[in-house]
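Build the 3D complex.
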Amino acid sequence: MSRFESGRSGKGDAFVSDRSGSLHALAMRHSARALAPLAVLSIWYLVGLVGKPYEAARAEIGKPLPAIALIAFIVVVAYHARLGVENIIEDYVHDEALKAKALIVNKWLVIAIAAIWTLAIMIIAAPR
Amino acid sequence: MADADPVSESLAAARPLSPHLTIYKPILTMAMSIAHRITGASLYVGVLLLALYLFGLALGPSAFDAVSWIVNSLVGRVFVLLFSWALFHHLLGGVRHAIWDRGLYLDRDGRELLTKASLGGGVALTALLWIASSLFG
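Done.
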């Protein structure tokens, strides 16, 4: 049995399972289930921002429910998006070195997006 | 990690690849499968842009002036419209897969029906959201 490596990379791994596929697929479905209600709530608040000037947009996002919904949304999105793009990278990037790099960029990019998004909401929703 | 032996290594290299997209007749379920992936990847980019908008909104009025085009300009409005459509399309695509995962609607008529329902449903929900948002937002 092979040692775990991210994706199906590495010599010999074309012949063995890395035994992580089922968990990956299940994690995709579990996060999707959480995202269904969160996405509907969040897109309502996000579309509500269209055309709003600075003060009005801050007042909208600063309310407790939009703030909590948007933070919960982006946390699960980061997880779900990472898994989905891992699938895309593994399907289309065949150069082993490039694939490994792309998987790492994907891993940290989703965390950076979620961190910036969460920080922004917390600043906006913080009591003044 | 166990190294593969040279024989199976060379056998694997000589193994024919499965036929790729271009060889199949394009059908709706296939197009929707591709659309599911494209909307998913687009939402990734869209969320990145929205994070920049929210960050500008958090930093102050001058930072907001630099990023407000993401949501308020004509291009921005089209972006949010496409983002919301992609979200609903991807969400309904997920619902469709969840139904298939339970072994339902897998027959010829069933899968066509689900595929058309999720395609139309995504457009309908997007229209409904923007109408409701302009009325009650």
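Chain B has a mean pLDDT of 91.
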